[in-house]
Write a structure and sequence with these properties.
The structure holds two protein chains of two kinds. Chain A is mostly helical. Chain A has one domain (about 25-275). Helices cover about 70% and strands about 0% of the residues of chain A. Chain A has twelve helices and no strands. In chain A, helix 2 (about 40-65) runs parallel beside helix 7 (about 120-155), helix 5 runs parallel beside helix 8 and helix 5 (about 85-110) packs antiparallel against helix 9. The longest helix of chain A is centred in the middle third of the chain and has 34 residues, at about 120-155. Chain B is an alpha/beta fold. Chain B contains eleven helices and 13 strands. Chain B has helices at about 40-45, 70-75, 90-100, 105-115, 130-140, 160-175, 185-195, 210-220, 230-240, 260-270, 285-300; strands spanning about 1-10, 15-25, 30-35, 55-60, 75-80, 150, 180-185, 195-200, 205-210, 225, 245-250, 255-260, 280. The chains are: A mainly alpha, B alpha/beta. At the A-B interface, helix 1, helix 5 and helix 6 of A face helix 2, helix 3, helix 4 and helix 6 of B. The complex binds adenosine-5'-triphosphate (ATP) and magnesium ion.
């Protein structure tokens, strides 16, 4: 190789902010990082497919059994929740992506390049969360709306479909996207704290799937006091239109989930500042 | 300009770097030498603010690294462990780093061209060979056109052509007035590339000296190989000098002289009108001298090692 000289400076700092690290620039950088990894789009595609396909499948199965359903079940049938059945499995894909956006940097060593470029460190975490949150919100909300519309058109065969204007429906559909986004942000926080992909994913899955199951095993008065405040149960309150007796109110529940995500991100911020990279 | 003052790093009970102070001047390549586990990479991570020192501090271009508002324009770094996401292409990796400072895409293309990665820039970095990975590391270090470069073992795993390329690149960067700190565990490589040396062993400073000085000391009291048709006569003359030992070689014309340098041997031969065919200072002594002083550092671990070689910084 003959290029032995360094290329001359073309992008030197000129003005006071010229060439400096700014939060919008870090966001731009994180967007480039996000969009240039195949895993980002594969996991989002998985989340979208799960949301739409499972929702449609459930609606189709209901339509084909509708005439044989007992009257009690028909009375409790909620077409919006039925068409959104796919968003809960989708949370696993979103959770994996949330962990990966940060653990992938630790496992490959990229984090050192990232933190050398942005030695104040916290902008990297905020920008990552912002880019991940925005893209995930768009994709999961679009998926939930699609699942709802497709599901209702399937259900219309038996005239049991609903519309956005029915009580709670818009909130539930948009709530599915909000729930998935905040669960994802919780995963970003946990992934950043734990640093390892396997450990991060195990923790997120444990928190979303195993912990609610364990809560079931508690004595019922304990269970009733704790279960509604678990991140998954609390957040899912936003997506139901028929409140169960112990459920938190929709926005209260969602606020509790946001609290978990905020706590995880705050912990991640403190750890990122303190620990060696 | 890099300055380290009392840098210390402990990982649990293990002291990786102990009270290390040195400064690295602009305009010359400074070699950062030490055997495996000496603490070179740890020191470099502390210079870049990636690891927090247990004690002491370091500044680059007059400020702690983390206080720079545009660090890529101040310091370009290449770390030992590849700091690249394996799933991303070289081009996108550099583009993402550049974006943090608003460095234009044109500059990314420039550095890719400069390190010779144009053909593979769109391929996943995970599939890169060792040499390609090193070139990508150099490209990211050059991205912000920084005044200071910190490179951890850049020649590691490179083929001879790549080594030559890096050597020339480092020299030209220094010639432009930049500060260049390069770690290595090969004394022979640093002797060809660097002008100044900082040698550490077990996390402690062993030598802070110019390469010329190091070489001079390494070969003083030195060893010389002489080939002469008058080997018997020259051997007799040399043995009369104090502190000189002469060992005959398998080749009857060859003498291995210790305790006299080539200058003394040459003069002696001239005084007695003896013909010399070869007069060679023993070059292996450079690497040996390096091993010698670092071995000492291990032995005298608890005391300040080999103070004779530590010069006061000249600037
Ligand atoms: N994160 C860490 N945790 C614990 N010990 C560490 C850590 N990083 C380095 N060490 C230890 O500190 C010492 C110095 O390591 P370092 O990697 O800095 O050496 P080095 O001079 O770069 O060696 P090499 O030539 O092999 O690259 C080693 O004994 C190493 O095991
Ligand atoms: Mg090292």
């Amino acid at each position: 190789m003959s290029a032995a000289t360094a290329p001359a400076r073309t992008a030197g700092p000129a003005g006071p902010t010229e060439g400096r690290v700014t939060l919008p620039r870090v966001v731009h950088s994180e967007w480039i990082k996000f969009r240039t990894l195949r895993s980002s789009w594969l996991t989002l595609l998985a989340a979208a497919v799960l949301t739409v396909a499972l929702g449609t499948l459930f609606c189709w199965a209901t339509v084909s059994h509708w005439d044989r359903l007992p009257a009690g079940e028909r009375a409790h049938f909620t077409p919006v929740e039925h068409s959104l059945r796919g968003y809960l499995p989708a949370q696993l894909a979103v959770g994996v992506l949330g962990v990966l956006v940060i653990s992938g940097e630790y496992s490959t060593g990229m984090i050192r390049a990232s933190l050398s470029a942005v030695p104040r460190r916290l902008p990297v975490l905020w920008a990552k969360a912002a880019v991940f949150g925005a893209v995930t919100w768009v994709v999961t909300t679009a998926s939930a709306v699609t699942a709802f519309l497709v599901g209702q058109s399937v259900l219309s065969a038996k005239h049991v479909d609903t519309t956005f204007s029915a009580p709670g429906v818009t909130r539930a559909v948009l709530g599915a996207g909000l729930y998935l986004t905040v669960v994802g942000l919780l995963a970003v926080g946990l992934g950043s704290l734990i640093r390892s992909t396997a450990g991060g994913i195990a923790t997120v899955f444990g928190l979303l799937l195993v912990v609610p199951g364990l809560a079931e095993a508690l004595p019922s008065n304990w269970h009733d006091a704790i279960a509604p405040y678990l991140p998954s149960n609390a957040g899912q309150a936003l997506t139901v239109v028929q409140q169960g007796p112990g459920d938190l109110a929709p926005w209260t529940g969602f606020a509790v989930l946001c609290g978990y995500a905020a706590a995880a991100l705050a912990g991640a911020a403190v750890a990122l500042k303190r620990r060696d990279a | 300009m890099i300055e380290a003052v009392g840098l210390t790093k402990r990982y649990g009970p293990k002291t990786a770097v102990a009270d290390l102070s040195f400064s690295v001047r602009p305009g010359v390549v400074t070699g950062f030498l030490g055997p495996n586990g000496a603490g070179k990479s740890t020191t470099m991570r502390m210079l870049l603010g990636l690891d927090a020192p247990t004690a002491g501090h370091a500044t680059v271009n007059g400020r702690r690294y983390a206080e720079h508002r545009a660090p890529l324009h101040e310091v370009g770094a290449m770390l030992e462990a590849r700091a690249v996401h394996t799933g991303r292409s070289a081009f996108n990796h550099l583009l993402a780093l550049a974006a943090t400072h608003g460095i234009p895409r044109r500059r990314v293309e420039e550095v890719i061209e400069a390190v010779g990665l144009r053909e593979v820039a769109r391929r996943r970095a995970g599939g890169f060979s060792l040499g390609m990975g090193q070139r990508l590391g150099i490209a990211s270090a050059l991205l912000g056109d920084p005044a200071t470069l910190i490179l951890d073992e850049p020649v590691n795993g490179l083929d001879p052509e790549g080594i030559l390329w890096i050597r020339n690149l480092l020299k030209s960067l220094a010639a432009e007035g930049r500060t260049v700190l390069v770690s290595s565990h090969l004394m022979s490589e640093m002797a060809l590339t660097a002008e100044h040396l900082i040698v550490i062993g077990r996390g402690r400073l062993i030598a802070d000296t110019s390469v010329a000085e190091f070489t001079r000391r390494a070969s003083s009291g030195g060893a010389v190989r002489v080939r002469t048709p008058d080997s018997v006569r020259l051997g007799e003359l040399l043995r009369t000098l104090p502190g000189v030992t002469v060992t005959p070689d398998d080749d009857v014309q060859v003498l291995l002289v210790e305790g006299a340098d080539s200058e003394q041997v040459g003069r002696l031969a001239a005084e007695h009108a003896l013909v010399l065919f070869e007069l060679v200072p023993r070059q292996a002594s450079l690497e040996e001298a390096f091993m010698e002083i670092t071995r000492d550092a291990v032995e005298y671990e608890a005391v300040t090692a080999a103070p004779a070689l530590i010069e006061e910084p000249t600037v």
